[in-house]
Records
---
Amino acid sequence: NQEILLVSRPKGLPHEDNFSILDTSIPTIKEGEVLVRSLYVSVDPYMRGRMSDKKSYVPPYALHEVIIGGVVGEVIETKADHLNVGDVVVGYLGWRKYNAVEANQVTKIDPTLAPISTALGVLGMPGLTAYFGLLDIGQPKQGETVVISGAAGAVGMIVGQIAKIKGCRVVGIAGSDTKVDYLIKELGFDVAINYKTTENMKKALAEACPNGIDVYFDNVGGDISDAVLSLINKGARIPLCGQISLYNLEKADIGPRAQTALLINSALMKGFIVGDYSQRFNEGLLQLSQWVKEGKIKYAENIVEGFENIPKAFLGLFKGENLGKQLVKVAEW
Ligand code: NDP
């Protein structure tokens, strides 16, 4: 067996030296547990927060302990009544090749409905984040303009497509021409803007949004959000989902403050954590699977191969290496 530990807390941008791979033995399972062989491991931006020891909505990872995150795996041994060998499950497990885990800590997935990797993406946590953040907080209405930052990522690309289903004008912001092309040509975004090559974001956004901005789904914060918020309409709604442009800053970021824009436009900005909606996950998954089945929602995955490449794949999130959901394929199924 192998596992990946956090051995030092990143300062600024995380580095491969913050992690270490340890050889261990395959655990033996107790009554009520299953042994899960990892197939796909998810790397997610929120993990950066858990690598610091600042207060957040989840406790920090402990130093010299295995990192926990989303994993899809196969049950290869069972001492639990309701899980059989061969079942495919998803859960928050260690960055390990093999995890011994209580059966009620994982959820069985049906591999005949969709590729198993989607349980970590469009039909998992990121998809649900897009669904509830946009529909519950953003409340997009037919004909309105929805702007999404981090638009070519796991969450962002689902947000944009749901907004299209709801009949909105959809404008995405992303960090490469390939991503921008994908959003427009493959996913039907009305406009997409490469923030890395656009000198004046406010001007580009104003051109892209002739009727102003009614919903801003914020994945990144910082300068991009300042530009968007300067163009919001009266009664705008702003689901505050993520702030990835700030996660690696050593000092608090100071910029134009959004409060005035919110005040003069009677706008609503609301932070949320997908877990706030856990009672409604089934509803969200049912609707998302329906849309995927009907071809109304497409998804992309960026798959890196090899257990030892998990840290590298994680670091890639901060360089924008991924189009869609970043996953690591650890073993063949
Ligand atoms: P993504 O798949 O979007 O991956 C991260 C992307 O962020 C990169 O591909 C990169 O794309 C972009 N990025 C990286 N650094 C910067 C930067 N400095 N400025 C602007 N963009 C940057 O990740 P997810 O879809 O999983 O997550 C998106 C956001 O949603 C994150 O902020 C995450 O923390 C948040 N989130 C919140 C949840 C909640 O419950 N509230 C749940 C899940 C995610 P590019 O090439 O465009 O720069």
---
Amino acid sequence: TSFGFRDVPKTEKASLVRGVFDRSARRYDLMNDLMSLGIHRAWKDMTIERANPQPGEVLIDVAGGTGDLARAFVAKAEKRRKTRSGGPARAIVCDINEQMLLAGLKRGDAAHLDWAVGNAEFLPFEDNTADCVTIAFGIRNVTNRVTALKEMRRVLKPAGRFLCLEFSRPTTRALERIYDAWSFNAIPVLGEAIAKDRDSYQYLVESIRRFPNQDAFADELREAGFGQVSVTNYSGGIAALHTGWKI
Ligand code: SAM
């Protein structure tokens, strides 16, 4: 392809993370729906709305898994081609785990998509490659977040936009109580029943707790060099969209 791929050294990746997704890749799409009661679809739609895909643009979807955001980005830009000039948008789904990418490929419907195995902390792309970089439910698993944020900024073109969708902190006490009950009790049980893997889903729940809150994570975007950082809460802060620009 004409994308600027670069060679990166083989590094020791967080093996626990890799193990979690290796084991659950096949049932991943189903678990995603169950864990969020299907709401992750609406959050992803709103994220792509904000990404504002245009004909001819290039998206890199980091930790892109089976390619939900990449597909939505390309499809939305395609709709716009009916009224606006320009070629099709293209998206590269980049993920550390080949199995996730293969599961995505098997889903079909992969026009204008490319698939690249890569670590968010050492992205296999040249500087200034993409108009837009997204990461959904991926930054939480990265060992060094600021390193990854700087990498995602590096591969953006100047004035490019960055959007990060991630679980965050419920903004009211009442919601927090319901959410705690759901995530600490129901999710590990569902993980056992559906994926036969309670520990991995327990780990996912704990990783959400350890992740910084909305304001602290916004500061990390600024530390990585993003400008005009903004935060939008979804479903009362169960998830949040952080955005920033390469300026
Ligand atoms: N973005 C997709 C979505 O929203 O459906 C997938 C999200 S899934 C919860 C997290 C993904 O992050 C997995 O596919 C996993 O392999 C990937 N991942 C974990 N650590 C990563 C890293 N350091 N670099 C790139 N991808 C990573």
